[in-house]
Amino acid sequence: MNTRNEDKDGLRCGSKFALPMQAFRRWCRPMIRRTGITLALLVVAMSQPARAVDITDQRGHSIAFDKPPQRIVFLPIPGPATFIAIDGSERKIAGMNGYSASAMREELLGKMFPGFAKIPTNVVTGAADPSNFNPNVESILALRPDAVFQWATSAIDVLERTGLPVLGMRVGSQAEIAGFITMLGQVAGNEPRAAAVLARQEEEKRRIEAAMSGVAESQRPRVLYFNRAAQTLRVSGSKAHNEFYIRMAGGQNAVDENATQITVTIEQVLSWNPQVILLGTFDTAMPSDIYGDPRWQGLDAVKARRVYKFPLGGYRWDPPSQESALGWIWLAGLLHPERESSNLRAAMRDWFSFLYRHDLTDDEIDGVLFAAQNRQSAGYERYLTR
Fold first, then answer.
1. Fewer CB within 10 Å, N side or C side of the chain?
2. Cα–Cα distance for residue pair 133/146, rounded to 1 Å
């Protein structure tokens, strides 16, 4: 005689599945009706251990994990927002750079993922700064991370000496951001999701490239991107990622320096005489600051009212990220509206639904696009509803 105390589904009372079984059955019943799967098979599937994963970072270093990491620390600024888009949640982020947190908490990402505000931000030494990636080793160890992300070139050896699994990342080019997103798919245990993000970006890239393929060099406006413009004048040269999307969108970089970012003087900017100025999202400079400064009045961009603040969505659109395709659409429509006829607001709704499962309101779209600040600039009415 079988003396085990079992319920009718063959699960022994006292096992780890027995106590919540009634609630479990109620939760499973719709799935069972739709798929025909048995309760016993469902329990077995749910009890399987998470798979091991080997991850090769962007330095070429491989790390073996028994299962996808559940507690992750990000020192690089773009890491948390991109991971959320891949994993669908902020819950696995155990710590992050305070500078990335400051922008995201104040903007849309904090609204979409309220738990973001509770994530510790003491993972770098000193105050939050966009160029500070020095690890606060003691604080990071206290967070008990399963994996730590750090720039491949920034004090990574200090972290590795602690014995923590450290993944080096790079996002300086479109190829590197693709590699980073692919790596995050492995870390999240969701490689198909990462592949889907990249496929959509590639589709948009090809579409814009085709639309701009006939633009002659003489028709490409000189575009100057300010990484900083409020206190220091820092611009992007021909080795920066900005070169890639300025060219793709039908422009040409006004800066022909073979560099990523350089600090310049007003006299240098005047000598380049850009026809379009893009203000990055890493400082507070707005078009009104440029229009109202008597030193800039001789610039073609100022005379034509073609100064624009880059949008800030779930993450910044000016550096490479999961939202890059929206930045390409935005810029192409400003440089060549006759060739780029996409409805940016509709594209934003589509991408935010895909990336974050969030339905954007008109007010949210206006906020992302800095509608109030950009309204006075030429051609921006195409992106506005009121």
1. N
2. 19
